[in-house]
Amino acid sequence: MRIAFYAPLKPLDHPVPSGDRLMARLLVAALKRAGYDVDVASKLRSRVGDGNALRQARLAELGGKLARRLIRRYENGFLPRPDAWFTYHLYYKSPDWIGPLVAAELGIPYFICEASHAPKRAYGPWAASHHAIERAIKQADAIFCPNRADMACLHPVARAGALHFLPPFADIATWASLEAGLDKSGPLAEPRTDRVNLIAVAMMRPGDKLKSFSVLAAALAALPPALQTRWRLTLVGDGPARGDVAALFAGFAPGQVYFAGQCDAATTRHYLELSDLCVWPAISEAYGMALLEAQAAGVAVLAGNSGGVSGIVRDGETGWLVPEGDVEAFARVLASQLQNPVSLKNAGKKAAKNALEHHDISAAAQMLDCVISPIINVKDAGDV
After folding, report:
1. What is the predicted pLDDT for the residue at 227?
2. Three-class secondary structure of residue 88 per DSSP
3. Three-state SS at 195
């Protein structure tokens, strides 16, 4: 069976890495692992960050034209006809102007992964996009939700039985700890000391990411003086707010905070191999793919309890959760763990086990297929 895939917020080949791009790629990989042929139907970015009504109207018009073009190509055999349409990540700034039209015209199922519904956007600058999101949600045959918090808002709008929790997932084998194969020569080979090696992996951009860095810097500064020499922090990531992030950590001792820059997956895993605790305040985080990857690498996590983070980090077991934005609570738990390396090691082992058992791409592929396949088969039977 063939699925047309679309990521309106950020195409799979977008040059800027992010959790959203990663999740889109993982979904394609999971669908392929489940046995589906997957075609990227469009690369149109529908995001309008400033609420510009004219730009929303132009994108809606362009989406309609692209939808009609796709329909013609599917019907005349120029492109293989899909058995279903699958859209990843819909919210009021980034609607799907293409998929609902194509699915309705071809009479095929329409699937969504990660959607949010914000009634307060029904009026105001994003009204057009909001109503497009609402129509797509009502049309969807199934909606997969990596963040349970989204389900309550979707429930009044979605079809009965259409909502399905899909635990955030990764290709765990890619991130699993491989200590024996770790190349410890070169810049990643700084020897371990009696310090606890902390790590944060995130893009450096204004808004919630910068707020998270601010909370992290404040929490580190709030540690008792006796613990200020007990840690070293590696920051993996880059972005337009790097200068602001650097300013936040400028007051610490030279060499205590290391900026690794933007890293590929292999290099990021090597930094994780050398780390004891992943620290991230997670301000307004949807669920945090970096937190899952850290646990897959056997690294415990200290994070803010926002969004779907609790669906990844098991508080007191694979890591620790504190109230979102609470500098004092973050510093208190961090201080406790800096003095308890055995606890960090045990939590890291449980984190790796939890990631493999509950968040591997194979489990996601099976879950997606269990929902998608019967719906496609019912549609096909109805067309006979």
Report:
1. 95
2. strand
3. coil
What was the pLDDT predicted at 184?
Answer: 38
Task: Identify the band that residue 175 occupies on the pLDDT scale cut at 50, 70 and 90.
Answer: confident
Residue 61 neighbours by CB under 8 Å, 6+ apart? none
* Residue-level pLDDT at 383: 63
- pTM score, whole prediction: 0.84
Alpha helices in the chain (DSSP H): 19-33, 53-75, 99-106, 127-139, 149-154, 172-175, 208-221, 242-248, 265-273, 289-296, 327-338, 341-358, 361-383
Q: For residue 236, with 0-12 CB atoms within 10 Å meaning exposed, 13-18 middle and 19 or more buried, which class applies?
A: buried
Cα 31 to chain centroid distance, Å, stands at 17
Nearest of 231, 193, 214 to residue 335 by alpha carbon: 231
**Which is it for the CA torsion 150, 152, 154, 160, positive or negative?**
positive
* Per-residue buried b or exposed e for 272-291, using 16+ beta carbons within 10 Å of the residue's own CB: bbbbbbbbbbbbebbbbbbb
Beta-bridge mates of residue 111: 86, 142
Given a contact cutoff of 8 angstroms between Cβ atoms, the answer to whether 239 and 17 are in contact is no
